Amino acid sequence: MSSTSDGGNGTTARVLRLLDLLQSRPVWSGTELAERLGVTTRSVRRDVERLRDLGYPVNAAHGAGGGYQLGAGRRLPPLLLDDTEAVAVAVCLRLAAGGTVEGLGEAAVRTLAKLDQVLPGRLRAQVDAIHEATVTLDSGATPVDAATLLLLARACRETERVTFAYAGPRGSGERRVEPYRLVATGRRWYLLAYDLDREDWRTFRLDRMADAETRGWRFRPRDDAPDAAEHVQRSISRDAYDHVARVRIEAPKALVEKQIPASVGTVTADGPHACVFEAGGNHLGFMAMHIGALPWEMTVLDPPELRDVMREQAARMLRAAQSLPDISVE
Questions:
Q1: pTM above the 0.70 mark?
Q2: How does pLDDT run across 81-112, given as a tens digit for each residue?
Q3: Is the terminal CB of the chain with fewer CB neighbours within 10 Å at N or C?
Q4: Residues 6 or more apart whose Cβ sits within 8 Å of residue 127
């Protein structure tokens, strides 16, 4: 069978088949590929060139032990997955999106959204079945519905409005938003979006959402969109609380950031050997307790009431330590 007898569709199908073969094992000889594809070795060489034009780095080595090999290039070309591989990738991405793989949450959701867009319904049902049958031990992360994650990821990419029921700390109700970015912390997922009813940027916890849906309304991205990571960090560590503490810590910013999660507060350098830590809270007593547990010398800058509470706690602890009876062991 000669490649010259193929139509355009036949050539495309054969090139995809060639790509599948090259991905299935390390090295193929030209003769082996020609037999598998039902063409001449000359046609195989032309199809290899077509793959190279598409960005696939196909290496060719002559002589004994040589042949065609799919190599690594400067960028990642499109991958060709069979049904089993596609299901395996989707299941792994769902686990990563759930926080079981550190640092992969956001990337997993973006990749899963792309894969879900082209995944056939029969394979999507297999992925759902495996996901429902899988239980992971509690890692401290707040579980989020995978379908909600996918819907929001697609809405961010397609600039499509979203509505959802939201149970926030200041009341519940329906929200209409223009979704901008998904942000993951070590424990939770957040959505940065423009709230159409409040006419301002807002941060929403995904585990407080229900009945999220898109209705086909597209929007033009706003020019005043804030930095997603900074806005969400400020919202969850300061803006939602009654009190905001500012503490100057006698330690470099890089050292403090290693021990204080970004979801707890912000750390700003104050010279090479010090930094300012800011965090919010609703109870000054708890704030004083947690700040007092930090292992560095520090000065409380604000609020003055926090300094008073810390003095009271220190005096109470000192009295408790001094009142311990001497215990002798014979």
A1: no
A2: 777 877 777 777 776 666 544 455 667 777 77
A3: C
A4: 87, 90, 91, 94, 119
